[in-house]
Amino acid sequence: MQDTAVKEASPEPGSRIAGISMDSPGRFINRELSWLAFNSRVLEEALNRNHPLLERLRFLSISGSNLDEFYMVRVAGLHGQVKAGVEAVSPDGMTPLQQLVAVNRQAEILIRKQVETWTQLIRELRAEGIAVLDTEEITAQDHEWLEGYFLESLFPLLTPLAIDPAHPFPFIPNLGFSMVLRLERQGDGAVLNMLIPLPRQTRRFVRLPGDEIRYISIENIITLF
């Protein structure tokens, strides 16, 4: 008996495979959410103990800078589409507004994981002799040195900006880092909201004098004074 070769026919356009039609949005993964999933995997490397500790810190930094660029480029594009009233759906079946909502939800989860990872890494760094200090850990001697550093290197560069109905919201440049403060005026107890852009020309972390390796962030220095 002669064997007969059977050639499997290619599926016709619009046919269904495994319950999903060829033109179904369910066949596609949203590219923005896919990118966030990729950046989550980058962050996971910061928790991989097979890497040296400082290399893990670098992975955390990379995930942060990646997210900054993502919001400056891709999320900005989605905002532009929403503002222009674009309602066309992407191949995965989502409108720009739906994508924006989903992206912000996933980004919030990612940022929370970044904070948790940073908290874990600074504990491990301290165990290796590298301390990132909070304000309550500052000694009187440290406080005296930091006051001089603040007055000479930080204070001249700080410009508090009011946030109120009488002023337009202050401009924050891309990659700008600012502190938001809620202050109470001594005279009448009025509440004031302020924005303090942190200068880019200064280091984010300042090493304290002494033989030990100790750092404090400039936002904590500003909080002290």
Task: Please provide a written account of the structure.
With 225 residues, the chain is an alpha+beta fold. Helices cover 44% and strands 14% of the residues. The chain folds into two domains: 24-128, Methane Monooxygenase Hydroxylase, Chain G, domain 1 (Up-down Bundle); 132-224, polyphosphate kinase like, CATH 3.30.1840.10. It has helices spanning 31-45, 53-83, 96-127, 140-154, 218-224, and strands spanning 16-17, 20-21, 130-132, 161-162, 178-184, 191-197, 205-207, 213-217. The strands form three sheets. A three-stranded mixed beta sheet has the order 3-8-7. Strands 4-6-5 form a three-stranded antiparallel beta sheet, with no helix packed on it. The longest helix is centred in the middle third of the chain and has 32 residues, at 96-127.
- Major sheet: 3 strands, mixed
CATH architecture of the largest domain: Up-down Bundle
Q: Would you list the SSEs in sequence order as H and E? A: EEHHHEHEEEEEH
Uncertain runs with pLDDT below 50, 5 residues or more?
A: 1-11
* Outline type: flat
Strand order of the biggest β-sheet: 3-8-7
Count of DSSP-assigned helices: 5
Radius of gyration: 26 Å
Distance between the termini: 95 Å
What's the average pLDDT? 89
User: What would the CATH topology of the largest domain be?
Assistant: Methane Monooxygenase Hydroxylase, Chain G, domain 1
Q: How many domains would you count in the coordinates?
A: 2
CATH class of the largest domain: Mainly Alpha
Measured as a percent range, the helix fraction is 40-55%
